[in-house]
Amino acid sequence: MRSGISFTPSYRDRQRLQAIVADPKSPQKHVWRARIVLLSGDGLGTSAIMAATAKSKTCVWRWQERFLHEGVVGLLRDRSRPPGRTPVPPERVAEIVRRTQEPPPFEATHWTLRAMAKVAGVAASTVQAIWKAHGLSPHRWRTFKLSNDPAFAEKLTDIIGLYVDPPAHAVVLSVDEKSLIQALDRTQPGQPMKKGRLGTMTHDYKRHGTTTLFAALNVLDGTVIGQNMQRHRHQEFIRFLNRIERAVPAGKAIHVILDNYAAHKKDKVRAWLVRHPRWTFHFTPTSCSWLNAVEGFFAKLTRRRLKHGVFHSVVDLQAAINRFVREYNAEDPKPFTWKADPDAIIAARNRGFQTLESIH
Predict the structure, then answer these.
(1) What CATH class is the domain 152-188+204-352?
(2) pLDDT digits (tens, 9 = 90+) for 114-135
(3) Could you tell me if 166 and 280 are in contact, meaning their C-beta atoms sit under 8 angstroms apart?
């Protein structure tokens, strides 16, 4: 049994404790500690103090003893405690980090928490804390591609120049095709979204064919010319060029930004360009599809209309795409704005090649 403790706070201590309780900015742990001492000084027993402060018996005893030995200052200070587990030695942490950055010795592409914990002889939570502290995520990857085009810098500056400072009395178009868009129909109807529940969609589907969307984004006003076709050969590409030719006023030159797809460089396409002298093609560097502004439109089309769409036929799919293009053009499209510095892009590419050469 605990021996009884009785004390009477001095006038000065009582004033300080009452000020702590009355101050709205006081931490709550300081408030209920001060109340325990004040109630004890008023002669209340342990049970009454427990009921008034909603604290346990051992908690009341602890802070009574703390005040008795250390005064008011002891109520405002938390004693430091030794860690529950011995910290992992720095050399062991360094070993876990080193192993994480190397391929595992078994048949796997990367380390997992439990695999590393088993090899290192520590808890999985310890491995997780070490990885977090050192910014390591073995399960995550970033993809990259460095262009090997010898004329990378020239093509890059040419295209960015069209974006930033387009020629006068000319139209700048970003042209590409989104091929093999599938008309996917779900095997069962899904449930609509409602409060507290996501919308549902079956994981399996039925294929009803594919279509290819040829699109030209007008860099100056943000509008899109689109046309669906069954295939994406040079014949369909020339048909799309003819449509653009009819849509653009006769007095304007046409500068087209496009990638290095084989259909764009066919002999018949080059012959078509000879017959239409107001057209000029500007090819992006190899492996630089991100430089083509129309890719942003394709991403928006996929995200907002195709990804979760249900299409019962190719005709249904093409009609949905055409409606999306019309709505896109009607919703106040904005000119394409290029912000990246071409010199910074060239410098980053050079650093990438230097890193690859140093590693391999």
Answers:
(1) alpha beta
(2) 999 999 999 999 999 999 999 9
(3) no
In DSSP notation, 246-279 reads: HHS-TTSEEEEEE---GGGG-HHHHHHHHH-TTE
Cα–Cα distance measured from residue 321 to residue 301, given in angstroms and rounded to the nearest whole number:
8
Q: Max Cα separation, the chain? A: 108
What's the pLDDT score for residue 3?
A: 57
Instruction: Give the C-alpha distances (Å, rounded to integers) separating 75 from 42, 65, 66, 168.
Output: 18, 10, 7, 78
306-333 burial by CB neighbour count: b if 16+ within 10 A, else e? beebbbeebeebbebbeebbeebbeeee
What would the two tokens of residue 62 be? 């602890």
Shortest CA distance to 226 belongs to which of 204, 211, 209, 208? 211
State the pLDDT confidence band at 359, using cuts at 50, 70 and 90: confident
- Report whether 160 contacts 284 (CB < 8 A): no
Task: Could you list the beta-strand ranges (E) of 69-169.
Answer: none
CA distances from 272 to 9, 13, 278, 279, 280 (A): 101, 97, 11, 10, 11
pLDDT in tens, 13-54: 999 999 999 999 999 999 999 999 999 988 888 899 999 999
| Cα distance between residue 354 and residue 150, in whole Å | 16
Domain boundaries, given as residue ranges, for the chain: 11-75, 90-133, 152-188+204-352
